[in-house]
Amino acid sequence: MGTKRQFRIWRGDETGGDLQDYSVEVNEGEVVLDVIHRLQNTEAPDLACRWNCKAGKCGSCSMEINGKPRLSCMTRMSTFEEDETVTVTPLRTFPVIRDLVTDVSFNYEKARETPAFAPPAGVAPGEYRMQQVDVERSQEFRKCIECFLCQNVCHVIRDHEENKPAFSGPRFFIRAAELDMHPLDAKPDRKEYAQAEMGLGFCNITKCCTEVCPEHIKITDNGIIPMKERVVDRRYDPLVWLGSKIFRRGQVPQTSVTSGHHSGTATASGEQPVHSHAGGSHDARSETQAQQGVNWHREVPHPTAPAVDANGKLPLTELTLDRAAAPSPFGDDVKFPLPPQHLNFAHPQQDEPKH
Amino acid sequence: MTETRIERHHYDVVVIGAGGAGLRAAIEARLAGKKTAIISKSLFGKAHTVMAEGGAAAAMGNVNSRDNWQVHYRDTMRGGKFLNNFRMAELHAKESPQRIWELETYGALFDRTKDGKISQRNFGGHEYPRLAHVGDRTGLELIRTLQQKIVSLQQEDMQEFGNYEARIKVFAETTITELLLDGDRVAGAFGYYRESGEFILFEAPAVVLATGGVGRSYKVTSNSWEYTGDGHALALRAGATLINMEFLQFHPTGMVWPPSVKGILVTESVRGDGGVLKNSDGKRFMFDYVPDVFRKQYADNEAEADRWYTDPDNNRRPPELLPRDEVARAINSEVKAGRGTPAGGVYLDIASRLPAEEIRRRLPSMYHQFKELADVDITKEPMEVGPTCHYVMGGVEVDPDSGAAAGTVRGLFAAGEVSGGMHGSNRLGGNSLSDLLVFGKRAGGHAASYAEQLPSRPAVPVAAVEAAVETALAPLHRDTGESPYALQQDLQAVMGDLVGIIRRQSELEDAMGRLAELRERVAKVSAAGGRRYNPGWHLALDLRNMLVVSECTAKAALERQESRGGHTREDFPKMEPKWRRVNLVCSLDGDKVHLAHKPLPKMRPELIALFDRAELAKYLTDEELAEFDALAEEASK
Question: In terms of DSSP bridges, do strands B412-414 and B248-255 run parallel, antiparallel, or are they unpaired?
Fold first, then answer.
């Protein structure tokens, strides 16, 4: 019932090797790992390949299939065309031991460098109390099966051996994030540590790691970005640096520039709350006057400062937003076209009778 | 041969196996100040424990405050059909909660109840919601937590000694092929690095076996390649004994379609959360298979069974939650009666029982697994499931308190699946994860104190090392023998067809003959290629372990003339009280398996008093019942 399929599998060791062609029988419902096992049973008994659970739970059988980092136990043969040659190669980021087996000890070294969970002082075993919503954030990262596909795909270390000493990689960024979000972890500086010691700043959020994660952990969005956003030291982080250039901040403590002024007037005059449009906030009376086109000297709205956090920094909102662009300079609550009563501009002649 | 390079290491305690039991044992030995090595056949953290989905049973009483260790003890004994080593069941029930809470101090994040405690879920055979869980990936959480605890101990050592591996080291992708003895004392362990094929010798006075099970001897199994009975065989060859080897648990619900994932488990939680079993006629057939001993606890109609999910106090449980052996046998009978699915299983339906959103929330990795591996959407269609070889109840006969192996050897300890007695003839779901922790800790602690009190370190005999090297290299030097893969398939065929779920005398005798033939062939196996990461060679070395353990199973299965738990004899379909008093003990006599009868230890009065007389009557002999009555009479005076 099976069909013959063409495979090219990398055979060799650290001294070199090449792709070898195999023609293998493939049956309905099989995955790439089944094919490798069939090869071991037949023409290549010493074909080296790691595997354990064969159910996508242990993360052992990581390899590159047609150039894509995948778990071979979770790559169904039905996803390929019948006449397609399937090329299987070892993970590229780690040194080859033999055939499809690579030396992944880099990851275990980095694991050892990541500070462990710090139990809270004075809480006895059995007395730990946490809410489900609070543990769920860390639980997402604890789904990690350590297949190291994210480490393999990360271009900071893929083909950049020189970055390995300073860079722990996505797997350990989410380990840091997991502990950072752990409701009872007693170590306060996970983010700072990730930035200073784990090379978080090298990451420029291309999301390749998230893409290859077989557990569908949102490594970048839920792990790396929240840490980047909140980390205090921004000097080493090219993205935050870039953000500061784009938003032209970093010179003055902007939080107090206009919002203080406005909240002052608003409370003093007891007027309706101001709203922000076109980067400005202004009172309702000026609006009415503007509509009537009578007051050319009405108060010009001050530009509103960006919504900065307690540290006076702008969140990198273009990255956490649901779209791939900077947020609207008009504010997120503004829909276009603007309703006329919200417009700042009134044509001087608008109310004059037409001739 | 003598010029072969062998890397030598000195340790106080060597733990073979890096699953839940092994890691917990290693943590304990290291905390006791002993220099500890962990030997892992795979990479660190890939152990088969990660496959455990349902949870870890511990009577914490977080969800139902009526739960306590006595109830858990009763459930365990009942599940094991009273063949359990009562002391192990007692220790397990008493100590599980502490072991689970301890994991939280290592950083584990279990699912929570509303008041912030560890949530507990229902599971087959457990009277109250008892399983601490993390979605359906509890085993992964357990392994990761223990793995990270070991890392944290290494970080402490780094601070103190400037070396992460000063007192605890993980030897990943390393296989032990031989235990070395000095007289009757363990002196060390010999093996090879899988990656390089280089040999390695550990000199250590205490060895803890935590190698897991034997499922790879079966065609349809949920077990990974590592489960080749290494620990069982190492123990036998070192002079220790195995008990209960006839008892294998076939998990009732493994995937049967598509073929590539045949054997992979569908967690029991699917049934605990409302999933029902149906045959090809669409009938919910489990109501026809409730044995008399369980009538009191299990519903006999759909209405009551369905009410139980929301009101467990006033209704009996659905029969889908019967112990695993009962469910496996029921499915087997339905399929044999021609009411199975095309792929030879039955339907497990949760799609029609819960809203899709709820299924995805409660069983995320099940949903994920079926979607990705089989392209089946469990929220829309039923699953096709059937029994798969899952767990071996039998194993190294141990002292219940210390985990020290029985037999003629000293300094050998065992914990987890490789040890026997705790689960009797059938293990309850959820009891294995807590078993790993409770007895892992005990074995590690006792191995450490054994090493501590030893007046002199045993010495590794040179001749034994040379013999071990020769045995290990033999398959590579032969080129006339059969392929290890072919031999494994033949062994799996013998075990699957003749020593499977339902057993018969004639088939078992046939199996004994075929295993003897296989023994000849395995002795001549040859492996192509070199020593560097050569899976063919690795399998060739594992085969002899699989073979000797299979012989134990077949022999004990032939001897035990009754049906109980994970051992069903078609020619002896009934449970016999007189057989309950007997443990079948395997030892090695030369290279032949020797089988002996040994009486079961007698339960202490206060423990047997936890049961109803009516229940005991189903298990005990008249003689034992008379003793029980005498006890009861004395107590009432």
Answer: unpaired
